Amino acid sequence: xxxxxxxxxxxxxxxxxxxxxxxxxxxxxxxxxxxxxxxxxxxxxxxxxxxxxxxxxxxxxxxxxxxxxxxxxxxxxxxxxxxxxxxxxxxxxxxxxxxxxxxxxxxxxxxxxxxxxxxxxxxxxxxxxxxxxxxxxxxxxxxxxxxxxxxxxxxxxxxxxxxxxxxxxxxxxxxxxxxxxxxxxxxxxxxxxxxxxxxxxxxxxxxxxxxxxxxxxxxxxxxxxxxxxxxxxxxxxxxxxxxxxxxxxxxxxxxxxxxxxxxxxx
Length: 266
What we know:
Blueprint: H1 9-25, E1 30-31, E2 52-53, H2 72-87, H3 93-98, E3 105-106, E4 113-117, H4 122-127, H5 134-145, E5 154-157, H6 171-188, E6 192-196, H7 198-205, H8 211-214, E7 219-221, E8 224-229, H9 244-258
Parallel strand pairs: 1-2, 4-5, 4-6, 6-8
Antiparallel strand pairs: 3-5, 7-8
């Protein structure tokens, strides 16, 4: 765990304890030996019973930057372990103290398309799934219009916790969640990514450009072609439903790049 996540020693102790407990709950009985990290406080103070250390790590996990496993079942299990790690995260004190639960993501690894939104709302916080409210209903219609079923795509958010009052995520909160998001997407290994809304696009692509300047072209996220379009919540009747036409243009551009037929809208 890097200092960019939690600099406070006491907070780090809680994080380590929670992470070990979540790994055990997920059935993890050993961890590969990694590079020794010198901490500024005694390791004994963590009071965490260590998970058993394997005498020799598997070749695929020899380095912290090793590629995710190619096997879909292994990636699915790794996503479950990561979700348990997210569940125990307390780095954003305000979010951790006000959330009902974390909202990790839904969908299988190895999909063609991954949608990345901003953050969970009230409905998502209550149900523990992304995009289940009114914006989620509209996203479902967008997915169907593109010729997909919801269960055929992967859906997640920049943040895994609901910001109080559905406010925009703070830069520090997005930074704290970035490591989780990157590991999540790399385990899913989608062929294409669609960022929903300016907050999702700028945080995912690490840019200060506006959504207007990001739309209409492809970007690169770690080798994955990525587009940006409006968030479904922005398209709701009380906001800017006329922007649906522009979203459809973005999706047609994406489908053409994917080599998929463009369904006729009725």
